[in-house]
Amino acid sequence: MNKLMMFAAAAFALGTVAVAADAEQELQKFAPEAKAFKTVYVVDAFSGVDKGNKKYVKDYSDTFAGKKFKKIGYYLRLVGNDGKVQQVFVTMDPFSQNAKEIGVPAMNPKKNFQVNVSNLTVKSNVPGVKNGTFPKGNIEFWATNYAAGNGAKIPGADNAKFDFGDTPAPTGNYGSMQIHNTAEKQTVMAYNHWVTGKNAEVGIGNQSVNNPDWTFSNSGKNYKTADLVVLVQL
């Protein structure tokens, strides 16, 4: 590799970290209550995977081994091609006490979470997203393919559409990382198909057409950047 190529590679790496760092800083501005949380992962939603697992910009998961979480939080920040910023910060009671299990769902080893979560708190600047605290929500976290059928029998979910009640498959690598406000029938945050890099699917709130959870939307093309921060409160 010549010097020019080395410089370009270094600049790209620094740029990736800078964007991610901005997401952490923007979270503090958008939701000052996040200061009570600590970062576990920082994700560039458009980066690739390694042996089926997401590559992280920052990974502090080892430092949380054996620690007990009071809350888990997710912050998604999308910057559109038009420069508009969409944000959501959502927290919940822990669905796992293992930091290795709360990031982007891994293929190796596989660990699915299709469960209800308690004390869901949502803060977003996206029109139509219900803000506030809700007794329950549900998450659909898996690295495999999935079908639209309401396998978990989530009340109100549509068997014909990909929404807040779907069915994970044992194979494939499409991937779903979705948080839903069950009572409001609303996808709070979706990150799907991350193996495709810039063609990944990201969304805040329900998609207004087709599948509410952004499946098959190819929405990544609409954004300059998409950054995800995973946090815990100890």
What topology emerges from the helices and strands here?
Layout lengths: L2 H28 L7 E7 L4 E2 L2 E2 L3 E2 L11 E10 L4 E8 L20 E12 L7 E11 L3 E2 L19 E2 L7 E6 L4 E7 L8 E4 L18 E11 L1
Antiparallel strand pairs: 1-4, 1-14, 2-3, 5-6, 5-14, 6-7, 7-8, 8-11, 9-10, 11-12, 12-13
Roughly what fraction of the amino acids lie in strands? 35-45%
- What strand line-up does the widest sheet have? 4-1-14-5-6-7-8-11-12-13
The biggest beta sheet reads:
10 strands, antiparallel
Secondary-structure class: mainly beta
Task: Give a nutshell description of this structure.
With 234 residues, this protein is mostly beta strands. The chain has one domain (3-233). The protein has one helix at residues 3-30, and strands at 38-44, 49-50, 53-54, 58-59, 71-80, 85-92, 113-124, 132-142, 146-147, 167-168, 176-181, 186-192, 201-204, 223-233.
